[in-house]
Amino acid sequence: MITLPNECYYMIFNNLWPDHGNLFLCSLVNRQWCRLIIPILWNDPEEHFTDIRLIRIFLLTLNAEEQALLIPFNITLPNHPKPLFEYINYITSINDYLYYGIRKWLYDMKYDIKYKPFITEYELENAVKCSLITMFLRTNKNLKYLHLNGILCNQLILEGLYKNNTITTITTMNLYKIDDNFKSKAIDTL
């Protein structure tokens, strides 16, 4: 039996990329195929960001500092075991779909601010956005495109942007106030 080199399999699987369903089924054939297909599937999960299961996977990757941003909001983090693959490393772009997914996850988890008089819906959503963006900047070595829409930037995000040298495009719409003490150093450096 003749086996193909991984590069050939990769080219074949990459041509199946638009058909996520069949590509996923191919990943179940054997370990070799799975290792080749998972990075292709997770390369640009754009429209799948709205799936709350992905938000749960992302939340599993938060470190203590990123989790601390969520403590004032009493957000319960998932306690599942860490995923087999480091899916986050394969993602190359973050856009508005992630933010829609966060809103959907908060709604599904029934995080309601009606009973928290000093917390606004925006603050709750922003805390999750900041935690996840900080985690992506810390862990992802393939991130090329980052869309920061309507985020109140904090020091962790700006430090992550400073340390991450793979991002080639950052777009912002409604980027809200940045902490003035850190702003000048970070913005000048970026």
Automatic annotation (TrEMBL):
Residues 3-44 form the F-box domain. Pfam families: F-box-like. It comes from the Eukaryota. SUPFAM superfamilies: F-box domain (SSF81383). InterPro entries: F-box-like_dom_sf, F-box_dom. This is F-box domain-containing protein. It comes from Gigaspora margarita.
